[in-house]
Each structure stands twice: as C-alpha cells, then as structure tokens.
C-alpha cells in the first residue's frame, strides 16, 4: 500500500537526476559533419572518446582541426587590431549568406596579408616620422649648447661621423655630410656628439658616460618639447636631447657604444646657423609630407578593419563551431568498411526523440543513401548526472556540486538547500535593516540581469551575479529572522503592538534595568522590545538562540537520515534501510531528539529544570531520581530506555551488514541462490554504501573496516555535528553585538555632540562599518558557515557526491577557451 502511494506521487525534477541511456551511432561518412553539427544544436548528447589511447596528432581529422586553429589565430589577430584601433564592435552584424569553410579560410588569409602589409608600411612610416621629429628636436635644443660653447677654440667638428641612425634617409644624411665636410679642421681638439634618449634613462646614461670617460666629458641635456609615439606599443614616450663634449678617439668610441647600448639615437648638428636653418626647413617639409601619408594610411587601415569588424562575430562563431565539430569527429572510430563512423555516448531518455529527429534531418540534408543508425546499448560504467535547472535553481545546484557531483539518481540535496541554506544564513545574520540592504542589492542585480548577462564581468561581480537569487532569498529570510529577533540595525521597534512589560514604579521611567513586570499578553511576534537594554537581555537571548540552534540542527540531521532511507528504497537496498537508516534514526533521536523534546517541553511548561544536569546524569546516573529537574511523568524510565536503545544501535550499525554481504557473496559463488532480499546483482553493485562490490573481488576485511569507520564516524559525528550547529547561536550573537556597538558607541555617541561636523563624521563611520563589516564581512562569514553546515552536517548523512556531470556537446556552451 505504502509503495503504491509513493509510486503514484508526481516525479520531482530536481530530486533525482534525469534517467540516462547509453547509445551508439553509426554514421555514414558523408553525413558525419552535418549530423554532429545538428547534435551540437540539440545539445543533449555526451560523446565518449573512443580514441583516448591516441594522441591528438594521430586522429583522423587532425588537419581540419589545425586549419580551424589557424583561422582562430587570424580572427584573434583581427580582434586585437580592432581593439587597438578603438573601433566599436558591430551591434547589428550584416546578415550574409553562409559561406563554406574553404572560402572563409581564403578570405581570412587575404585580410591577414593585407593587414600585415599595411601594419609593416605603417611601422616604417612611423619610424621615419619619429626619426625626423627627433632630428628636428635635436636641432632646436642642441643649438643653444653649441652657441654657449662657441667662444672656445674648437679645432674640429666630426659631424660627418655622427652617423644617422636609420637607412631610410641616406639622402638627408649625405646632404648634411657634404655641407659639413667643408668646415673640417685638424683632428686634435674638442669634439661633440648630439642625440636624443628616453627621459627615464638619462640619469643612468650620464653616470655611465662619466665613469667610462673618467670624467673627461661635458654632458648637457634638455627635455624635448614633444612626446614621441613608440611604433611597437603605440604609447607616447618622453625624450631628452643631449650633447656630449669630449676629446680623443677612444672617448668617442666608448660614447658611441654606450649610446647604442642605451638605445639613444644620435644626429649631426651643423654649427653654421645658415645650414641649421636650411636643414630645419627640409626636415619640417618632410615631416609634413609624412604626416599626411600616415593619416591617409591610418584611414585606409581603419576602413579595412571596419569591413572586417562587420563580419567578425559571425566568423568567430562559425570557426568555433567547426573546430568543436571536428574535435567530436576525432572522438569517433571508423568501422571495418571505413565508410561509416561509429560513436558512443550518453543522452537523457527524454531526449531520444529529439536526437533521432536531428539525425534524420542530417541524413536528408546531406542526400545520403544510407540512414544513420541510432540504438540503445548496455553500459557497465555508471551514467553521468544531469539535472535540468533554471536561472533560479542553478546557483543552489552549483553550491551542492562544489562539494561533489551527485551519484547517478541519488537524492539531490539542492531540493532542500533552496530553502534551508538561506534560512540558516538568516538565523546567523538576522537583522531586518541589514536584510533590506541585501534585498536592494539583489533586486538591482535581478533588474539588470539582461544587461549584466551579456557583459564580461570581473570575478567578484560574476560571483555576485551568478548568486543573485541566492542573495534574494538570503535577504528575505534575513528580514524574517530580523523581525523575529526584533532588530533593525540593532534597534528594537514596537511593530506588532505594545510590550508585555511595564515599569514596577512610576519613577522607573524608561530605564529598563530593574522593576519590569508583565502586565499583558506576550508580544505577538518575535522578541519583546523591552528585553533590549535590560539586565537579563544577554542570558535570555543566549538561552533562546542556543536552544533554537539545537532544534534546527537536530531537525536538519534527521532530514538527512530520512533522505538516506529514500536512497536505499530507490536503489532497492534493504540492507542499507535495515542496518543503517533504522539504527541511525534510533541513535540520533534517543540522545539529541530527546534533548529537543526536553527543550520544547521546558518552553511550553515554563519549568526551571536544568537541562545540562538532565543530559549529563542521563549517562552518569540514569537510575537516580531527577527531583526538581523532572519535566514530565515517566521521564526517568524513558531516559533508561532511550539510553539502552542508543547502546544497541551502535553494534546494529556495525556488525550485521558486513556478515550479510559475506553470506550473499558465498551463496552466489557456490551458485545456491540468487536475488536474496529482493535485490539483484546489479542492485548490489550500485548500493549507496556497498562501494559497488563485485562478487569476484569481495574482500570481507575491507568491507568490515569500512563499515566500522562509517559507524564510528556517525556516532562521534552525532555529537560533534550537533555541537557544530551552535555556530548559529554564536554568529547571531556576534552580529547582534557588533550592530549594537556600532550604533551605541559610534552613532549615538557622535549624535550626543552639538556639532554638525562630529555628527557627520560619526554618521560616516557608522555607514562605513555597516557597509564593509556588517554587510560584507559578516555576510561572507555567515555564508561560509551555512555552507559548512550543509556540506558536512547535513550532506554526510546520505550524500555520496562521487558522480560526474553530464557534459553534452552543445554549441551554446562554447566559450573563448575553445579557441
């Protein structure tokens, strides 16, 4: 009767993963590419790699993959060039007819060659422009140094040996040499070298020159009036013009080598003013011509990039898809005739019709004479785990998957995590003022999800955006728990009526330290605001939150054990139900379920019994009279019975299961019986706690040790896990006290001064502390503690988490990493 009722219940989408089936595809070669493309659009088939033993270079379609990789490189090059040119991405790509891969490859090669040629010409022109600009700056600045030293007797100016640094302007250098050779004199006397260097290197440059010439030189420098663009990085660089006066051939050789090492460019400067003016005019004329040429080249390049930019998004998507298709084709094997490709994989049962329809369409569109064979096959390995989630449940599923992916079709904790996770967070964070702040942040993220979903976000913002619905529920539950705690930025309000307490005497006034008496019914919802500021505030709230934490913890752990029953029932494992679920329920509730009963009874009766004394002496002296600590009739014999049940439950967990498994193995091996306890061989292999034991390699000692570890872990964990839930009390108290400190010691203290500046400073400090400490650090702290309670205290009662995700071949999941 019970089984029929449970079987008639509607299925829960998230409770169990989708039923999967192993399938085999036999695809004619002429249909293979189109079939895989259509399957990528469906996105519900995970292929198995049948060539795992081969390297990527030994696979069939390695050349096509290389071509796609090369095209991806070219497209990344175009994207980088468009980004450097500061061209906006095309918001509305031009609709164009589909082009073949070969045609796209040819067009990309043409565009790349054209762009590289334009870049090379542009770099040459930019280098030439920079050289002329540097020459002009040297002519302007070096003249002052030469004029100031004109009174000295200078016997020679080796201007013809001040080599022009680039080969593009040999004509200009030759002209200058001809003009300056007429002014040569003897080779004895003072010489100079003039040039230009990066401003950041000047200090080191001067020091090296001084040491190399042993101080026998004169170094003059002046900052250039214009910044010069670096043709490689396209950044503007500050330069400094220098003139070095020296004497001797050795000094000249050293200076030239140092200039070359520091990347300094040196230019000849004539001493004759007439020649200077002539060269300056010539340089300025050439600069104007080059600037016009550079502008024309930049416009032509931007026009070419803009034409590429129109189609770039579609080309990137096309190449990415093609590469993904060939990667999948490389996972398939040829059959014996070499005319068909054989593939294997997993798909959800509900998707079989969609996949078959896509394969039929591929056969028709490719004009193949032979259809694609699609059939279900048996598989030894466990199927992948696949949950159909939406944007709301996806974040909660990711929280569970971060611990471990569910085993195929075992109970999924995220069904309950949707509610329990934000609720336990709110128990620690409860303050409806802070909850409203979190709610506003969550609503902003949800309102802008269409815009944020298309942008590339930073790691922190991406995490917030992905968990926007988790944040929404956390904020709503925080408002609810804050109303129960009656805290709004730690301030209580009479929202649901007046307090149940009043002053004993009229002189008591508002000082809630003594003299409060109850005069009406209890406060209808949450904590009475009169507790705030009273002498018994902390003892009362500590007792309330501590007991509440134990109740919540025992309830959630019981839920975990109950889910282990549904796992055992689903997998047909009567061993796990009888020798794991039953003794675990008995042990946990004999001790901590009884403690929860005592807490509720004490709340309902208003008894003054000491629960610490009751629980401790339940173990030390179970037969002693309870005296004033007795909460109800028959408590002592009940405690003795519960203690005996807890003691019996430990060997119940430990011994029967390994020996029964050994007996089943022995009977199977001898061939005497099959299907004991209503289970099949496959059922035993996939039992949640049997580690998929195969009868061929059954090891009794290993099974017994595993069961012993599991039993000891549960017994000790029942105590430690219950104590772990006290973090709900501790963090709730810490959050409340921090809020009180910031409110009373910062805001109220500053507001006590009759000075607007002090008040504003106090308000700013309070806002900063609330935002960064209470809303950020405390939120993160409560989030991590709630995460631990779910991963360790809740999930270890039933969740194995040793499965693997269903990763279907889908074009929608392709990212830039696939390039």
Automatic annotation (TrEMBL):
<keyword id="KW-0175">Coiled coil</keyword>
<comment type="similarity">
    <text>Belongs to the V-ATPase 116 kDa subunit family.</text>
</comment>
<keyword id="KW-0813">Transport</keyword>
<dbReference type="InterPro" id="IPR002490">
    <property type="entry name" value="V-ATPase_116kDa_su"/>
</dbReference>
<dbReference type="GO" id="GO:0046961">
    <property type="term" value="F:proton-transporting ATPase activity, rotational mechanism"/>
</dbReference>
<dbReference type="GO" id="GO:0000220">
    <property type="term" value="C:vacuolar proton-transporting V-type ATPase, V0 domain"/>
</dbReference>
<feature type="transmembrane region" description="Helical">
    <location>
        <begin position="756"/>
        <end position="777"/>
    </location>
</feature>
<keyword id="KW-0406">Ion transport</keyword>
<keyword id="KW-0375">Hydrogen ion transport</keyword>
<keyword id="KW-0812">Transmembrane</keyword>
<comment type="function">
    <text>Essential component of the vacuolar proton pump (V-ATPase), a multimeric enzyme that catalyzes the translocation of protons across the membranes. Required for assembly and activity of the V-ATPase.</text>
</comment>
<keyword id="KW-1133">Transmembrane helix</keyword>
<protein>
    <recommendedName>
        <fullName>V-type proton ATPase subunit a</fullName>
    </recommendedName>
</protein>
<dbReference type="GO" id="GO:0051117">
    <property type="term" value="F:ATPase binding"/>
</dbReference>
<dbReference type="GO" id="GO:0007035">
    <property type="term" value="P:vacuolar acidification"/>
</dbReference>
<feature type="transmembrane region" description="Helical">
    <location>
        <begin position="586"/>
        <end position="603"/>
    </location>
</feature>
<keyword id="KW-0472">Membrane</keyword>
<feature type="transmembrane region" description="Helical">
    <location>
        <begin position="467"/>
        <end position="485"/>
    </location>
</feature>
<feature type="transmembrane region" description="Helical">
    <location>
        <begin position="423"/>
        <end position="446"/>
    </location>
</feature>
<feature type="transmembrane region" description="Helical">
    <location>
        <begin position="638"/>
        <end position="655"/>
    </location>
</feature>
<feature type="coiled-coil region">
    <location>
        <begin position="94"/>
        <end position="128"/>
    </location>
</feature>
<feature type="transmembrane region" description="Helical">
    <location>
        <begin position="548"/>
        <end position="566"/>
    </location>
</feature>
<dbReference type="InterPro" id="IPR026028">
    <property type="entry name" value="V-type_ATPase_116kDa_su_euka"/>
</dbReference>
<dbReference type="Pfam" id="PF01496">
    <property type="entry name" value="V_ATPase_I"/>
</dbReference>
């Amino acid at each position: 009767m019970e089984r029929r009722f449970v079987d008639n219940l509607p299925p829960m989408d998230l409770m169990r993963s989708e039923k999967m089936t192993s399938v085999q595809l036999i695809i004619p070669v002429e249909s293979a590419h189109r079939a895989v493309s259509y399957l990528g659009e469906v996105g519900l088939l995970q292929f198995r790699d049948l060539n795992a033993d081969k390297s990527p270079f030994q696979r069939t379609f390695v050349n096509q993959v290389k071509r796609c990789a090369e095209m991806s490189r070219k497209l990344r090059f175009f994207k980088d060039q468009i980004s450097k040119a500061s061209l906006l991405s095309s918001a509305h790509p031009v609709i164009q007819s589909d082009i073949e891969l070969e045609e796209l490859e040819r067009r990309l090669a043409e565009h790349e060659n054209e762009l590289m040629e334009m870049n090379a010409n542009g770099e040459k022109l930019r280098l030439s422009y920079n050289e002329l600009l540097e020459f002009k700056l040297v002519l302007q600045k070096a003249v002052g140094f030469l004029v100031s030293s004109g009174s000295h007797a200078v016997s020679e100016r080796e201007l013809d040996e001040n080599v022009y640094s680039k080969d593009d302007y040999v004509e200009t250098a030759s002209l200058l040499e001809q003009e300056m050779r007429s002014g040569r004199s003897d080779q004895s006397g003072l010489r100079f070298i003039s040039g230009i260097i990066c401003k950041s290197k000047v200090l080191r440059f001067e020091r090296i020159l001084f040491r190399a010439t042993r101080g026998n030189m004169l170094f003059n420098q002046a900052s250039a009036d214009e910044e010069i663009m670096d043709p490689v990085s396209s950044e503007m660089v500050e330069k400094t013009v220098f003139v070095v006066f020296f004497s001797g051939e050795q000094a000249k050789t050293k200076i030239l080598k140092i200039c070359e090492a520091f990347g300094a460019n040196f230019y000849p400067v004539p001493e004759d003013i007439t020649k200077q003016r002539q060269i300056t005019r010539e340089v300025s004329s050439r600069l104007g011509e080059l600037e016009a040429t550079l502008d024309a080249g930049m416009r032509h390049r931007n026009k070419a990039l803009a034409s590429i930019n129109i189609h770039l998004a579609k080309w990137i998507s096309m190449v990415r898809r093609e590469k993904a298709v060939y990667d999948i084709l490389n996972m398939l094997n040829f059959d014996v005739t070499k005319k068909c490709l054989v593939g294997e994989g997993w798909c959800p049962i509900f998707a079989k019709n969609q996949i078959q329809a896509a394969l039929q369409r591929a056969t028709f569109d490719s004009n193949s004479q032979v259809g694609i064979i699609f059939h279900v096959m048996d598989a030894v390995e466990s199927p992948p785990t696949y949950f159909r989630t939406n944007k709301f449940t996806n974040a909660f599923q990711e929280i569970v998957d971060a611990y471990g992916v569910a085993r195929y079709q075992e109970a999924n904790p995220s069904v309950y995590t949707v509610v329990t996770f934000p609720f336990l967070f709110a128990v620690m964070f409860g303050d409806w003022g802070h909850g409203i702040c979190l709610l506003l942040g969550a609503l902003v993220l949800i309102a802008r999800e269409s815009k944020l979903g298309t942008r590339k976000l930073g790691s922190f913002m991406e995490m917030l955006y992905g968990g926007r619905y988790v944040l929404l529920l956390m904020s709503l539950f925080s408002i609810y728990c804050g109303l129960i705690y009656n805290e709004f930025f730690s301030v209580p309000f009479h929202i649901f009526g007046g307090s149940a307490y009043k002053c004993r005497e009229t002189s008591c006034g508002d000082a809630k330290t003594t003299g409060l008496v109850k005069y009406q019914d209890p406060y209808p919802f949450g904590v009475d605001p009169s507790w705030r500021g009273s002498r018994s505030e902390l003892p009362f709230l500590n007792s309330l939150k501590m007991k509440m934490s134990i109740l919540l913890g025992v309830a959630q752990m019981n839920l975990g054990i109950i889910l282990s029953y549904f796992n055992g029932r689903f997998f047909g494992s009567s061993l796990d139900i009888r020798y794991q679920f039953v003794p675990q329920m008995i042990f946990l509730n004999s001790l901590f379920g009884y403690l929860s009963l005592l807490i509720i009874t004490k709340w309902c009766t208003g008894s003054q019994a000491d629960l610490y004394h009751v629980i401790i002496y339940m173990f030390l002296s179970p037969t002693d009279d309870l005296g004033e600590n007795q909460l109800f009739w028959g408590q002592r014999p009940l405690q003795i019975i519960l203690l005996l049940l807890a003691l019996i439950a430990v060997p119940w967990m430990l011994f029967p299961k390994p020996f029964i498994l050994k007996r089943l193995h022995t009977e199977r091996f001898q061939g005497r019986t099959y299907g004991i306890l209503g289970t099949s061989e496959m059922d035993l292999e996939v039992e949640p706690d049997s580690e998929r034991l195969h009868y061929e390699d059954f090891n009794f000692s290993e099974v017994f040790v595993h069961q012993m570890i599991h039993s000891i872990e549960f017994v000790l964990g029942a105590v430690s896990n219950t104590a772990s839930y006290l973090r709900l009390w501790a963090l709730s108290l810490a959050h409340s006290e921090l809020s009180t400190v910031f409110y009373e010691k910062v805001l109220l203290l500053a507001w006590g001064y009759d000075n607007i500046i002090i008040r504003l400073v106090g308000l700013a400090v309070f806002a900063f502390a609330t935002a960064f400490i209470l809303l950020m650090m405390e939120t993160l702290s409560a989030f991590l503690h709630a995460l631990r309670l779910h991963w360790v205290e809740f999930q270890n009662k039933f969740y194995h988490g040793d499965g693997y995700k269903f990763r279907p071949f889908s074009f929608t999941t392709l990212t830039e990493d696939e390039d």
